[in-house]
Hints:
Elements lengths: L3 H14 L9 E8 L17 E3 L13 H5 L15 E8 H7 L10 E13 L2 E7 L7 H8 L6 E7 L5 E6 L6 H4 L5 E3 L8 H4 L7 H5 L17 E6 L5 H13 L7 E5 L6 H4 L1 E12 L5 H11 L5 H8 L10 H9 L19 H10 L10 E12 L1 H13 L7 E6 L6 H5 L18 E2 L2 H11 L8 E2 L5 E7 L11 H4 L3 E5 L12 E4 L5 E4 H14 L15 H4 L9 H20 L4 H4 L10 H11 L6 H7 L2 E2 L2 H7 L1
Parallel strand pairs: 3-7, 9-16, 9-17, 10-13, 13-16
Antiparallel strand pairs: 1-6, 1-8, 2-5, 3-4, 4-5, 6-7, 11-12, 14-15, 18-19, 19-20
Helix pairs in contact: 12-13, 18-23, 20-22
Amino acid sequence: MADFKSAMNVVAKTLNNIKISIETDGFDGLIVKELKASNTLDKNRTTKQSHIAITGPQMDMFPYIRANGYFDVEYSLEDDELKKYFVAQIPVNLYKSNVNYLDTTAEFFSESEMRVHVSIVRSRRKDAADQIQMSMTYMDSPQFIEFRKIVHEGSYMVMLKRKEELLYDMYAIKPEDVDDEFKKLNNAFFKQSTNTTVKVDELLSAKEPSDDNKKIEKKIIYKTGYSSEFERNRIVFGAPGTGKSFKINKECAKLIGDNNETDYERVTFHPDYSYANFVGTYKPVMKKYQSRTHTQNGEKEVIDVLKDTSLTAQDKYDLLYDKFKGDGLTRLPILLGLYTDENFETKKADGTPAVNDNSVERNHGRAIRPYVCLDDQDEVKEEISYEYVPGPFMRVLVKALKSAMTDNPQPYLLIIEEINRANVAAVFGDIFQLLDRGDDNCSEYPIEATEDMKKYLSKELELPEECFNKIRIPDNMFIWATMNSADQGVFPMDTAFKRRWDFTYIGIDDNDKDLQGKTVILGSKVKQKVEWNTLRKAINNFLAKQKINEDKQLGPYFISRKIVVPENGNEIDSEKFVKVFKNKVIMYLFEDAAKQKRATVFEGCFQNSTRYSEICREFDEKGIGIFNHDIQLATEPEDINENVEENKE
């Protein structure tokens, strides 16, 4: 085993290889620890452990306060009432050079070095050796938590104790940058024979974060490192009935989990949809407010103090003492007893402590509490007030940002149905710029937030408004949309908008496996059994020969899946099918896809091919006989002879 000097030289050489220089004679303690998954805050880890476990001789690197009652009693007899351990915090220096080496995009501090504080706990484990739990995340400086997030499984943590000081330097080194000589230092403690005097007030001095730390205790985070197989911005498009929404729903469940109704929102665009609907705007809302009916301000002030839940009973007594100092001091404890069960000390009129306690008066107040209402008898009224009302984009953005600020960020999804049925340039406005995402899946270019956006985000995320001067879309926010370019009256999308999306096309015959073999009986006079999928393809092929584009043709689920895919067997309910076929398929062909080819498509109706009602009537009687002869042949219908069927019976 190497001695302290040799170990320091190995560490200095390894750090120097990653362009970090240290003075080896400035330290008197050294440990190296290879980090397992349970020692990291990696996003994809499965363990719930958040601390770094220090075991064996390496525990002597740190000071701790021992709770003898916790360590000496048998584990099974441990007193649940006893404080199990005491938490100390040690000062640790982090260095910008090391942060940049680990992650060039990290921005949690800008100076060359930063002093943070890290919690240290000596803990016992059942049927196992004691350990030191280093870094209780809810007690550490927030910058140290950010540092841990960029240190991954397999990396090495190096802790160097400053000579004769309660101060440590910490570095992290990637596994590919260490050699076998360095690896031999793992899990050993190297020290010099020096003494460090530690005062208790120094050991506990960092219990509260500094003012600078408090300012960034919570910070807005756009890059969480969340990984997904799905594109962040995507549009699923295809002909009507190809299953676009079905695909989105299926992959939504895969992204955020089954039966998750809270982590996504769905909105449908339409021609009147606007930026105010999508992002948010000020709107008039009805607000309830209390109309004060007090005749004396003094009474109101007293009741306001009594009802203030942020004050202790003693605070309330002290604040009201002067108002009741005359002959009312005996009444004050009764009033307090109406509003609180806490004990409090009382004074005489001259300000000296009262000889007797106030339990009698206080208990009187408690006793009559159910029968007395000292509310200020406010009258509830309503009036119109203007408030910022967020749209679906802003609501999902807030949820994603809140999750991004946690140790385990989750994905959030905004689904836009029929995205091209609104003027997307007007609906997205300047949000359009945020759709341009970089390699890290965050918005590459931020936009200036409006004042109402700042106030809303500040309120929801509990951060100062200045944090939101510029905003981005975080990498855990997904925006998916469906588009049917066959719709009439749709708005065109410009190239700049389109290039910010990943387009997924669903072909006219994709996803039709479930339809194969599903048949229906049509016609009251001429009965025939036809397969819906074959009929659909026959119509599509005929439309194609008529030079009608694919996006005007019929997808497998132009008629709802619940109708054309029976729960049991292969027979489609004829009554339901006929009703929907007339209302959807015939109407669509008549009014849209084959509007200019009615006589040709509905050739079987002869003189009635230009009258929708007559086409529907004839469909009831002769089924696919209303269509062009080529469609009928391609459908390959099976004639049903009713006489034969009756003879069988």
